[in-house]
Amino acid sequence: MSGTSMTTRAWLLMLPLLAVMIAVIGWPLADTVGLSFTDAKLVGTAGNFVGIDNYVKTLTSSNFQRTLTTTTIFAVISVFAEMVLGVLAALLLNQQFYGRTLLRGLMILPWALPTVVNATLWRLIYNPEYGALNAALMQIGMLDAYRSWLGEPGTALASLIIADCWKNFPLVALIALAALQAVPRDITAASLVDGAGPFARFRFVILPYLAGPLIVALVLRTIEAFKVFDIIWVMTRGGPANSTRTLSILVYQEAFSFQRAGSGASLALIVTLLVAVLAAAYAVLVRRTAGSTA
Amino acid sequence: MERKSFLFSFFIHACALLLAVIILAPVAWLFIMSISPAADLTAKPLVWWPQTVDFSRYGILLSSVENSAGAAFVASLVNSILVAGMATIAALVLAIPAAWAVSRTPSVGWSLYMVIATYMLPPVALAVPLYFGLAHLGLLNSVFGLALVYLTILAPFTTWLMKSGFDAIPKEIEAAAMMDGAGLFATLRIITLPLAAPVMATSALFAFLLAWDEFFYALLFTSDLRAKTLTVAIADLAGGRVSDYGLIATAGVLAALPPVVIGLVMQRALISGLTSGGVKG
Q1: By CA distance, what is A247's nearest residue in B?
Q2: B209 occurs within a structural domain
């Protein structure tokens, strides 16, 4: 078959997917862009054109700046902790011990638990009156009085980060473990003969094999963490005193709770842009590491 | 060979035990809460293991007595299965031809990368127009509307997985079949699709789990038993005035059961699906 007819055939086969994607993603996205320049409400009139007013108001509002900071803290700490814990767990799971196959299998549990179930579970654990965390810490003498882990601005975000890490580090561990198993045995053996200590061995022999998959996991996890909504909505709804309000929660409140569709749209697009910048920065990073390890 | 000292082996076993406890304790506690009498869960000091095991909540939630907690839970369970099932099938129907086309005709690949790039989009960027659109079509609070919206997540993801699956099937096999006189669609039906069956199964499972897990759109676009999914029902329970924490835990266990079973059985396939897509990406 000739080149042009093959291309035509390919486009025909892709047509249904592309048509649906334009209908459910392309058009809504374009519409969000349009809305963001209006003062439209969720119900009622279509709204008037207000230029870049929404963007100016959003970017200069203290609410937005505070929320951006909260989101960044959540994303950076939880993703960093997930990476470190994930790699440590993978190194452990790559050692010899009794029950290794079983433990490797169990690692899928937190990943498989639906996000909302995970959030609900931790909400019960952190319960100020009957929660397991308070009970356990009291019984071993580490706590004098029950605390409201999710009810105090000082501990709410940290409690959320722990719940998020628990669900997500095992997946990083499984990805890292798969990469570790690809490290040829004779290379690690040779590095031992050459007298490399455990840290040198990790840095120069093992890490190059881990870098690729880990960076991909890092990219995906960071994007996910920046968009976080479910776990926070179920556990704290952004409270107390907005101390756990992330960008997606703020957009939800603006567009749906306060019904300001126009200003919510501008906020949503700012979030989208931030995520796109992150993804682009990572794309550069991925290309650079691919170049250096190839 | 490396010789491990006794001390090192002890250290590794201690770490493994710690990891096992970290992974298992919260899940085990969820299950224990679901079978503990309500009084045990509000006792001080907390009763960690119930004197009498109580499975009655599973019966309550899975009963279909009208206007009971069970009826609401069963309805949301059915909605979740319907929405996830329909969205998965639709996503595969769209993804398979497109993924094959891109795999065999790389010159049109850029359009696929645009589709995949939509993964980055936060759902909030689409939520308001989708809300207006569904309202216009009369598809708010409908399992069909929600399944349609889920294609925004499922279709790019399955196309990505299917393309790497087709990439692994040599073109030459298809060329040989066509040389023997098979038409394009006969070739695809007899040769390619059977070879791609394992990838299709993995993609379908992934898609189903993604839809099963989804919360944001379901929260926005459903409002009562006609379309509410499990995730919304559980969030309602957790945020509501339910006084029996065991009932919330039971709903969690039931909602977690399908993905946990799929995860445990399919672990190898799921991880290789994730890493192969990731490493090539």
Answers
A1: B124
A2: yes
How many Å from the N-terminal Cα to the C-terminal Cα in chain A?
36
Q: Are residues B44 and B19 in the same domain?
A: yes
Q: Which of A13, A174, A268 sits opposite B98 (nearest CB)?
A: A13
Do B236 and B124 fall into the same domain?
yes
B104 and B219 housed in the same domain: yes
My answer on whether B198 and B117 are in the same domain is yes
Which domain range does residue B113 map to?
Answer: 71-280
A121 to chain B: nearest residue by CA?
B30
Q: What are the residues whose beta carbons fall under 8 Å from the beta carbon of B134, sequence distance 6 or more?
A: B140, B142, B145, B148, B149, B221
User: B9–A103: do the CB atoms touch at under 8 Å?
Assistant: no
End-of-domain residue from the set B27, B54, B81: B54
Q: Which residues of A touch B267 (CB under 8 A)?
A: 105, 108, 174
Distance CA A42, CA B187 (A): 51
Q: Is A217's CB within 8 Å of B278's CB?
A: yes
A165 neighbors A172 (Cβ within 8 angstroms) = no
B268 and B232 within one domain? yes
Residue of A4, A6, A88, A116 best to disrupt the B interface, most CBs of B under 10 A: A116
Secondary-structure breakdown of chain A: helix, strand, coil percentages, each rounded to the nearest 5: 75, 0, 25
Number of domains forming the structure of chain B: 2
Residues B50 and B141 in one domain: no
- The pLDDT confidence band at residue A23, using thresholds 50, 70 and 90, is very high
Evaluate whether B103 touches B163 at the Cβ level (below 8 Å).
yes
**pLDDT for the residue numbered A278:** 87
What does each of the 281 residues of chain B score in pLDDT, given as a tens digit? 455 688 999 999 999 999 999 999 999 999 999 999 988 888 888 889 988 898 999 998 998 777 777 888 999 999 999 999 999 999 999 999 999 999 988 888 888 888 878 878 899 999 999 999 999 999 999 999 999 999 999 999 999 889 988 988 888 888 888 888 888 888 888 888 999 998 899 899 989 999 999 999 999 999 999 999 999 999 998 887 777 899 999 999 999 999 999 888 888 777 776 665 544 33
For testing contact with chain B, the best of A1, A5, A7, A14 (most B CBs within 10 A): A14
User: Which chain A residues are Cβ-neighbours of B281 within 8 angstroms?
Assistant: 216
What is the architecture of the domain spanning A36-293? Orthogonal Bundle (1.10)
Nearest by CB to residue B120, choosing from A42, A248, A279, is: A279
